[in-house]
Request: fold
Amino acid sequence: MSDPDASTPEPITGLHHVTGISGTPEENVRFYTDVLGLRLVKKTVNFDDITTYHLYYGDEIGSPGTIMTFFPFGGGQDGRVGRGQTSATAFIVPSGSLEYWQTRFDEYDVQYDDVKERFTERVLPFTDEDGQPLELITGNADIEPWAESDIPSEVAIRGFHGVTLNSAHPEQTIEVLELMGYETTDNSDNRTRLVGAGNRAAVVDVLNNPDDRRGVQGVGTVHHVAFRVTDGEAQHEWRETLSAHGLRVTSQKDRQYFRSIYAREPGGVLFEFSTDGPGFDRDESIEALGSELKLPPWLESDRETIETQLPPLQTE
Ligand code: ZN
Reply:
């Protein structure tokens, strides 16, 4: 399938963002800001469905590698996490902090499992208010936590560790990741660990669970996983390379805070490749990020209609 003549662009360093589907927007904001201590860095709409919010959470400025985003569908159909999907999204926390988090989860009534060892790391699995599978994994990161949360900085979330993909075709998924510059670093019974070329949000684990049921997209599941590309030029090169590998890649979409292309990998997961810039401060000051409903220029003339169609959302 691969074209041996196609040169491979600069390797992918890690995740840009992860986008999930949630229930009511208010519950979603409460969980990711109050419980997890992330900053709401942007309140906008899904540009492909303007009756739905698109909420972005991250560090102070929404650095690539820290951004968890949601399309909240209040009253939407529940999904089912299974094969062909992202089966967990992991945040990185400093070593020794998992006990703090267990106590906090008890306080806030968050569902969590026992801490387990995975390769050399400690993992605390938990779920958000919609059953979205999440993990806290101990390790080091070059990210400063959001300083205005009430979580002490020595235990706070520092961006993503990575994601786990429950691929329907693990070998082919691994092939695509290797093409992207990821290298296999560990293996257990059903889990292959690949690490990207950077030192932030660089881990992708691929599961081989042939007996699992097929996942169903809906509330409580991940919609897509986005990887970082430095700029439009690198993105164009990746578009060529992925297409030469046989993937169907979309044209470039202007996502206002970054530009994106999309391709579904053979194991079932929708991959996005997003530019680092222009960033979340292009239409709001850093101090004001997330405080108002922001719309891209091409939707601004419909603001009144959009605002009446959106469900209420108090964020302060
Ligand atoms: Zn995205």
